[in-house]
Amino acid sequence: MIALLAVACVSAGVWILSLPPPAALRLTSIMPARSGAASERASGPRLIDRMLHLRAVLSGGRRDLAARRAAIVELCDGIAAELAAGRPPGAALSAAAEGQSLPRLESVMDAARSGDDVAACLERAAETPGCEGLRLLAGCWRIGVDRGGMLARVIDGLAAALRDEQEHREEVALQLAGPRATARLLAGLPLLGLLMAVALGARPFAFLFGTIPGALCLGFGVALDILGLWWTKRLATAAEELR
């Protein structure tokens, strides 16, 4: 029985180590979107942005931020297209914002319809995490609102810059997927070692939970494990921040 448990623990460890890296899985999932990058400008960038938006909303967590950034790119594309078609800035913003789910966007649309300070509303909406691009849109709006043609070109350039920034974020997240998975795996190895010790007939849990030195070792080990995960997350987060 003990031998079977030991074999099972070793097999589980080998299976975990033999899994494909998360970076490879993530690369496989985004390859269809990447393969269409060359024809994105010809077919219109909104399709890829909407796909990224939907995938981010369904995934939650960090993907919510990516969804908002993709929606802002789509919003800028829509405003630029409406302005190029000859619509006034307020009407162009209202038309492009229809159907968007960005936070505080309703107040921006109301300001555009009533002729209030749209740039100020955009700056307030930019305070929501993931909506930082609206602050740049507010700056473009404040500078070029009196020049429809120039504003269209400026916002179109802003959409391209935000799209490049989002692609850079995805590339960084792809590169960090492997280190993140390795950190999680290393954090779980002590538990696997304890299970293997139990399978071999040792009594590690009796030592850890039944003696003072064991309790000290357990507390110190758990603290180091949590500290390692926190430090890895902090390094990854710092690497994802655009300089």
How would you sum up this structure, described in words?
The structure is a single chain. The chain is mainly alpha-helical. It has one domain. It has twelve helices and no strands. Helix 5 crosses helix 6, helix 9 packs antiparallel against helix 10 and helix 11 packs across helix 12. The N terminus is likely disordered.
What would the keywords be for this entry?
243 residues, mainly alpha, 12 helices, 82% helix, 0% strand
Q: Assembly state here? A: single chain
The rounded distance between the terminal residues' Cα atoms is 56 Å
- How is the main sheet built? none
Question: Beta-strand percentage?
Answer: under 5%
SSE pattern: HHHHHHHHHHHH
Sheet/helix structural class: mainly alpha
Write the layout of secondary structure elements.
Blueprint: H1 2-18, H2 22-35, H3 40-43, H4 46-59, H5 62-84, H6 89-97, H7 105-114, H8 118-125, H9 133-144, H10 148-199, H11 204-210, H12 212-240
Helix pairs in contact: 1-10, 2-10, 4-5, 5-6, 5-10, 6-7, 7-8, 8-9, 9-10, 10-12, 11-12
Quick structural overview:
With 243 residues, the protein is mostly helical.
